[in-house]
Design goal:
Number of helices: 1
Strand order of the largest sheet: 3-2-1-4-5
Distance between the termini: 55 Å
Length: 155
Amino acid sequence: MSDFEGVDFITDMPEGTGSIDPAPEGTHGAKIIEVEKYQSPNSGNWTCKVVFQIDGGKYKDHSEWYNLWHPNPDTKKLSNALFTQLNLATGFKQYPTEFVSLVGRDLQLKMYQIEDTWTDKDGNPRTSMKTKISRDGYVSSSIAPPSPSGDKPAF
């Protein structure tokens, strides 16, 4: 039996299956579609990976890694504060007992883009645009209408 039993091999991309374009700067409706405890293959540190669907799939899904257990106390404190803001914006007054409790929650995200320069595994310099969430970027969807594009980060 094949590992791919029941999986269709489709060579033509169907219409309306999401976007590869990142969200532009501004405030966007978001839904948490995945949450998992994730171990970084580079550092070995455990993080909480959260995947957001942006504007109903109009833009590329956005992933954030929260270093909730980071060994550096300052990094851990910032990450815990950001994750607390995420939980408050989704209606929790404290952390839920399971990650899966966040899945399906709606909120607004204030997003901005930065140019990221890095070196690939072959030692070549690379530059790409990254979409980030502002430090004050987690807002309850019940109290925050989207603002026009072009919002700048809070720092």
